[in-house]
């Protein structure tokens, strides 16, 4: 049986299967987007599908450090919408 890829949540530092996490991607142009499929080109970071992890990431600015760019409030609002609308 093939093992599933593991990734670490930026909020709680828990290792989980890649499919259980939300991927945030920074592409070559510097645009930040949410990648549910996990296939988009670019630098990726992962967070759990819960609001507590998102709040930790926003407070600590770990996502900005991981993607090496300033992240707008609009991206965080989109993430909130994705997490709440699941």
Structural features, described:
By secondary structure, this protein is an alpha+beta fold. It is built from 3 helices and 5 strands; from the N terminus they run E-E-E-E-E-H-H-H. The strands form 2 sheets. A 3-stranded antiparallel β-sheet has the order 4-3-5. The chain starts with 5 loop residues before the first strand and ends with a helix. The model has no long low-confidence stretch (mean pLDDT 91).
Produce a short descriptive summary.
The chain has helices at residues 51-60, 62-67, 73-84, and strands spanning 6-8, 15-17, 22-26, 32-35, 43-47.
Identify the notable features of this structure and list them briefly:
single chain; 86 residues; alpha+beta; 3-stranded antiparallel β-sheet; two-stranded antiparallel sheet; 3 helices; 5 strands
């Amino acid at each position: 049986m093939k093992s599933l890829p593991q990734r670490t949540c930026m909020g709680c530092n828990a290792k989980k299967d890649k499919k259980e996490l939300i991927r945030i991607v920074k592409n070559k142009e510097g645009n930040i987007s949410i990648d549910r499929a996990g296939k988009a080109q670019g630098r990726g970071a992962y967070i759990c599908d819960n609001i507590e992890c998102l709040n930790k990431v926003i407070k600590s600015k770990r996502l900005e450090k991981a993607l090496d760019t300033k992240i707008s409030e609009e991206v965080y609002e989109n993430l909130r919408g994705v997490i709440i609308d699941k």
